[in-house]
Amino acid sequence: MAGGIEVKGLSVSLAKTRTEIVQDVSFSVVRGEVLGLVGESGCGKTTVALAVCGGTRAGARITAGEVTIDSRPMLGLDPVALRTRRGRDVAYVSQDPAAALNPSLRIGRQLSEMLEVHAPELRSEAIHETICETLADVRLPSYPEFLRRYPHQLS
After folding, report:
1. What whole-number distance in Å separates Cα of residue 13 and Cα of residue 26?
2. Handedness of CA 104, 107, 112, 115 (dihedral sign)
3. Mapped to the 3 state alphabet, what secondary structure does the chain carry?
4. What are the Cα distances from residue 62, in Å, to 10, 23, 79, 139?
5. What percentage of the chain exceeds 70 in pLDDT?
6. 47-78-23 Cα angle (round to 5)
7. How far is it between the farthest Cα atoms of the chain?
8. How many whole angstroms separate alpha carbon 100 and alpha carbon 61?
9. Are 147 and 107 in contact (CB under 8 A)?
10. CA 102, CA 98: separation in Å to the nearest integer?
11. pLDDT for 29-42, tens place per residue?
12. How confident is the model at residue 151, as a pLDDT?
């Protein structure tokens, strides 16, 4: 599948006990589509999201399956290649802003830094435009006062 995310037969286990915490998950998302992972606390939503980004929490490991983004594999990449793909092709943002964002940096600065690292070809005007478009996509404001807020000031 070109232009999206495809997950086939994804399984994740605890490294020590080999207990499966996610078993045989498959789905595809075409570029521009939205997929919601819904379930009870502890059912594996975060585990699946992290695996799509090529990783797991400490103490877990991906034991089976494939994850491709834009027809390119995410699993088994070396750390440099994985870091390059994360933030540019895929990202995970925790529901808890305190876990996802640096509490001592303003929202606008953090978004700018991410783009400076993952899209160094962008000039400051394009960075600002990209931030505004992205915030609009998730129905957040992009006016200057909002961008000067700290993560704990988001609701």
Report:
1. 16
2. positive
3. CCCEEEEEEEEEEECCCCCEEEEEEEEEEECCCCCCCCCCCCCCHHHHHHHHCCCCCCCEEEEEEEEEECCEECCCCCHHHHHHHECCCECCCCCCHHHHCCCCCCHHHHHHHHHHHHCCCCCHHHHHHHHHHHHHHCCCCCCHHHHCCCHHHCC
4. 7, 10, 15, 33
5. 96
6. 25
7. 51
8. 21
9. yes
10. 7
11. 998 888 888 889 88
12. 86
Q: Which two tokens stand for residue 137?
A: 């996509």
Measured at the CA of 25, the angle between CA 21 and CA 26, to 5 degrees, comes to 165
Tell me the pairing of strands 72-73 and 20-30: unpaired
Total number of residues shown for the chain:
155
What's the pLDDT tens digit per position in 62-109?
999 999 999 999 999 998 888 888 877 887 777 776 677 888 999 999
Q: For the whole model, what pTM was predicted? A: 0.71
